Fold this protein.
Amino acid sequence: MSQTLSQEQQIVAAVRKITRAVDLHSKRLVEVCGLTGPQLVTLQEAGRLGPTSASTVARAVYLSQATVTGILTRLETRGLVTRIRSETDRRAVVVSVTDKGKQVLGEAPSLLQDRFRQELERLEEWERLLILSTLERVATLMGAEQIDAAPHLITDTIDLPAGAEQAVDAEHAPPNDFLSNASRQETSRTSSGPRSSAAPDESSSPARPRSAT
């Protein structure tokens, strides 16, 4: 493919590979353990920290208190965590992972960032700094340097509705020709001429989720 693409197209394709890897891994998480990326990260940190406050979990996963509260509500509904008022401070809520939650953690696939971290550790420091500098430059070129992002390779998917974690209803899936039609439309738009120079927004990405809860 690289022999037929321009240098600019090769760069865009490389960025697309990264986003696709994150998307595919996030989908696999839902299929295997019924958890979205943010849910699994939150459950992992709650298990690692032991009984602790929701605010401590929020800081550990680099997500807002409101976002983590929503995630914990869904995890609690599924019986994966409990939230109990502290005996010493009635204003505080203690979060604990249940036996069922520990079982899910034991069966859940590792996060994509775990593998990535292992590979990074094998590199020399100058190589890691070069990667960091390049990726930060890419973010700037895309007008994304001001976007707040947690250090997790997960898709900011909306939480699944109650009962949807155990089974994905096929009737809600797009028909097989949907992606083909979308692909043809995207190709048509690309060939029609240069696009607006306005900074890209999240709505331009296919199936881009709207929140991290």
Summary: The CA atoms of residues 118 and 203 lie 33 Å apart. The longest strand covers residues 81-85. The chain is about 55% helix and 5% strand. The beta strands are 52-53, 81-85, 93-97.
